[in-house]
């Protein structure tokens, strides 16, 4: 059985069907990429899965746990963690504080009122471990908002990793990156494969073909086709609606 | 209320611990504790009562600062909670109870209940809607007070026999002052500690980036609700103390302008700074007191002050004193 299953997801905005009966599954250890032209409904789908948008229909299941009715924070607890297309970190805080906050979310209650968090050694170790994992150890004391874009993206990923997720949702992790940063991010995602299954939403075709075990193509809110890189590259409709437009652009 | 309001600090709780900043609260506490004893020598007895009122309002402002500054919740109904606390005292006095501790404790509990209910509804909204709904609830409390004929309605209710602090304390003329000071110090210390606790840091995270906090797995709604209820309860305590201080309670203390002035005082002092409430209230009420001696148009200079602060010290006066943000 799949690690993660979304079945028959539907989302309407007024008359527009942004997500039209989408079913998608992720196997353990798999990187499943989701591609599609602008406006295909990729971000909507991510928000539906992570719970930031309510579903009109459909169901979600992760590792045998039904997620459909859970609010976002409980989905995270169930093992589904996400990154944001637009980098979402605590810009005014140091990298260390960012990581500490993420670590705090998954180690005990946040309803502790009287003891200083600064004294919690275990949290600090978790934070340092996360920094190490994504390569932020050198910038721990920098204010997050002042870091270069590529580094902030890494921090965004690190925040998501703090949950020790079973499934990681990466919403266009390469968005706005130069080629060098992209390479680093590809290497990082490849490394993360060992820790969590990944649903990767991405525009960067090179990255997708390099990383993904399976690719699904989303067009006008529907899954057009699903398969490995060769299958998708060879699919005539995909070439027409997606790769084709890229080639002529 | 953006994140840049409190830039630095990562592991600096230790670094910031030493020096003048650490001594200052104790110095101030000692000075305030000694004040009623010194005052008669300088014919300043009148100001003992004034300082007592300052301390009470500081408790209210500090509780508001917690949800406003640290929590990013612009609640325009805080005076409503002061009213609930004050009317709890009135209800108990009217029923024949006279223990101050019982009355204040009851005010804390009753207001916590009110704040939980009001918060559970209000916190489902954001931004302007949150401001409006907290205002609406406070106005409902205001009109509830007006309609309470048993407690004097519009005319208010006089508490003619001072509440009893118990035993030998009642013979000591300054006991109430010291009780207020002790509570104010306790609330200040509690606020300072909360700011570096898991709870406080999570609350600030929600203020800065709510979506990310939810995506990190934080129970955002519950965290905000607990903060809101706690701050409401402390405001209720301040209201109860104010009832004892004035010996009189009327619905006017719940009027929305009272809530607005509390916000103004916190903004002047410094939102999200532990000194915000103390400085804001101290400055505002002192200036009011002084200006009233010279002119009946004392609102003018205070208004100008507010404008100046918003332009030249948008993070409040506390920020000017070099006390950096409260992040740890």
Automatic annotation (TrEMBL), chain A:
GO molecular function annotations of the record: ATP binding; ATP hydrolysis activity
SMART domains found in the cross-reference section: AAA (SM00382)
Protein name (database record): Amino acid/amide ABC transporter ATP-binding protein 1 (HAAT family)
Domain called ABC transporter: residue spans: 4-245
GO CC terms, sorted: plasma membrane
Gene3D superfamilies listed in its UniProt record: P-loop containing nucleotide triphosphate hydrolases
Pfam family for this entry, one: ABC_tran
Keyword Transport: yes
Keywords: ATP-binding, Cell membrane, Membrane, Nucleotide-binding, Transport
TrEMBL record, chain B:
Cellular component aspect of the GO annotation: plasma membrane
Chain segments annotated as transmembrane: 20-42, 54-81, 101-121, 128-145, 175-204, 225-248, 260-285, 297-321
Molecular function in Gene Ontology: branched-chain amino acid transmembrane transporter activity
Membrane topology: Multi-pass membrane protein
Record InterPro entries: ABC_transp_permease, LivM-like
UniProt entry keywords in alphabetical sequence: Cell membrane, Membrane, Transmembrane, Transmembrane helix
Signal peptide: none
Pfam families named in the record: BPD_transp_2
Places the protein is found: Cell membrane
Protein's recorded name: Amino acid/amide ABC transporter membrane protein 2 (HAAT family)
